[in-house]
Specification:
Blueprint lengths: L1 E3 L6 H13 L17 H11 L10 E8 L2 E9 L4 H5 L4 E5 L8 H15 L4 E7 L3 H9 L3 E7 L5 E8 L1
Antiparallel strand pairs: 1-2, 2-3, 3-4, 5-7, 6-7
Length: 168
């Protein structure tokens, strides 16, 4: 598995990745940096390149990667270079997702491990990773990468978010 920064060369593979989520009933794709709601792939490329340095109080600098295995995008992740108040409660430093047809194969665990290496390169010594309490697969992924549960936070809609820290 390799983490690859998106380019125009990935256009069709990325659109196929997005469509597979949509076909599976998923409209908000985790870790995609907004690919799920982009008007065009080209617009999304501009957005994620701007996101590398965007720091406007609401949004923080972030890097998006494709997780690629044998030439196929099996997942996506976003590393936030720092946290704001919102990300401190829900979102954390790293968001990730695996394409529906490639789940339950260990890809998320490997993706998070590689993302933690990238986060460390960015100067992050302790990474916050969050997941919904109901998402036991994500909790296992975080625990497999050394996550320590700090607490659980209730959202306004009643959803419970678990907050884990991983020392890098």
């Amino acid at each position: 598995m390799r983490l690859v920064f998106p380019t125009i060369a990935h256009k069709q593979a990325a659109l196929d990745y997005r469509q597979e989520h949509f076909d599976d009933g998923v409209t908000a794709i985790d870790g995609d940096g907004g690919l799920d709601d982009a008007n065009t792939y080209e617009d999304w490329l501009v957005r994620i390149n701007d996101d590398l340095t965007r720091d406007d109080g609401r949004l923080v600098p972030a890097t998006v990667y494709f997780a690629v295995v044998d030439g196929e995008i099996v997942g996506m992740l976003q590393i936030r270079h720092k946290l704001n108040a919102h990300l401190m409660q829900n979102g954390g430093h790293i968001g990730y997702g695996v394409r529906p047809s490639r789940r339950r194969r260990g890809y998320a665990t490997k993706m998070l491990a590689l993302a933690l290496d990238k986060a460390h390169e960015l100067g992050i010594d302790k990474a916050l990773i969050t997941c919904d309490k109901a998402n036991t697969a994500s909790a296992k992924t975080i625990l497999s990468n050394g996550g320590v549960l700090e607490n659980e936070v209730a959202e306004e809609n009643g959803n419970i978010v678990q907050r884990y820290w991983i020392s890098l």
